[in-house]
Amino acid sequence: MKIRLDRTVCDGFGICAKYAPRYFSLDDWGYASLIGDGTVPESDRDAVMRALMDCPVHAIAEIGERIFPTPALPLAQSEDPAEQLKTEENEAEWGFTR
């Protein structure tokens, strides 16, 4: 995991330094600074994620490659798209009621 800190957004709440003091320090005015290059080993991931999620101004962000699941393709596609419309006849199949 790799993180970055946007010091221009930081409002000096200090929550990050409370939860992850190995990765964030506070300057004389209470604003956060990132310690190191932002690389976080798996063993410290929970503490840093808590700091990231609890930051009230979202000054901390996780950076890096995200892996998104490949969407599943429909099993069978009919040539007539009208067959897939929600209608009164198939309302139980689609799960809606009036």
Automatic annotation (TrEMBL):
It comes from the Bacteria. GO terms for molecular function: 3 iron, 4 sulfur cluster binding; metal ion binding. Gene3D superfamilies: 3.30.70.20. SUPFAM superfamilies: 4Fe-4S ferredoxins. Keywords: 3Fe-4S, Electron transport, Iron, Iron-sulfur, Metal-binding, Transport. Its cofactor is [3Fe-4S] cluster. This is Uncharacterized protein. It holds the Pfam family Fer4_15. Residues 76-98 are annotated as: Disordered.
